[in-house]
Write a structure and sequence with these properties.
four-stranded mixed sheet, 6 strands, single chain, 60s Ribosomal Protein L30, Chain: A, alpha/beta, two-stranded antiparallel sheet
């Protein structure tokens, strides 16, 4: 956390988040380049495979993923009109191949 000259406190992203964002952006832009952002309602399903089975928070993982998908131009926004649901998302362990498997599926509403 830093304090600005006006006294306002700002929470900065952690080094781990900054590295995640950098790695994810390289992957996404390398795979998809410049595509038209998704604007319609979708279900975003993500399975997070971590190296070890430690306590974690799925909601925070999902928020970080959504932020990166928006920054990469995959999703137009991460509000409920675009990310309508996140059904099927979970956190698992794979010590040999940590990764995130993501499925984006249109939803009829």
């Amino acid at each position: 956390m830093i304090t600005t000259k006006t006294g306002r406190k700002l929470l900065l992203p952690s080094k781990q988040y900054q590295q995640f964002e950098k790695d994810a952006m390289q992957q996404l832009l390398g795979l998809y380049g410049n595509i038209e952002p998704i604007k319609e309602a979708v279900n975003l399903k993500a399975i997070f495979y971590r190296e070890a089975n430690y306590k974690s928070d799925l909601v925070n993982y999902m928020q970080a993923l959504q932020d990166v998908l928006v920054k990469a131009g995959i999703l137009e926004d991460d509000n409920v009109k675009v990310v309508y649901s996140i059904d099927g998302s979970r956190v698992l362990t794979d010590k040999h191949y940590p990764r995130i498997d993501v499925e984006i599926e249109r939803v009829a509403i």
